[in-house]
Amino acid sequence: MNTDINHYITKSNQVEWQPLVEKNIHYKGIFVKSLRYDEAAGRSTTILLKFEPGAHYPYHNHPGGEEIFVLSGDAVLEHTTLLAGDYLYTPPGFRHSVTSNTGCVLFFVIPEEVEILPGSGEL
To answer: Domain ChrR-like cupin: where (predicted)?
Structure first.
């Protein structure tokens, strides 16, 4: 284990937003910053997501659950609007889509990769 604390710090203001592309699908209007990359899993498990107004992420499953904290704006999940300061934990197997009316920035902890569900209207 590296004992230098600087090894574990991500200065998110110094990281550029990247378009969200998963399995060669570009989710228009959604951008990502990786905060924690899990080498063993080969993926980021802690991220920031930025939605432009009207952006939509399709209906999907969270096999390992997820945690969301809204930093700014609004996020709509299952017809419920989350606003800045709201926190959501979804248990493993929870399914939903995400839309933002005004745009938002979300802090996500996603232990396992999401599964886009068939017929979800991928963008």
So the answer is: 9-108
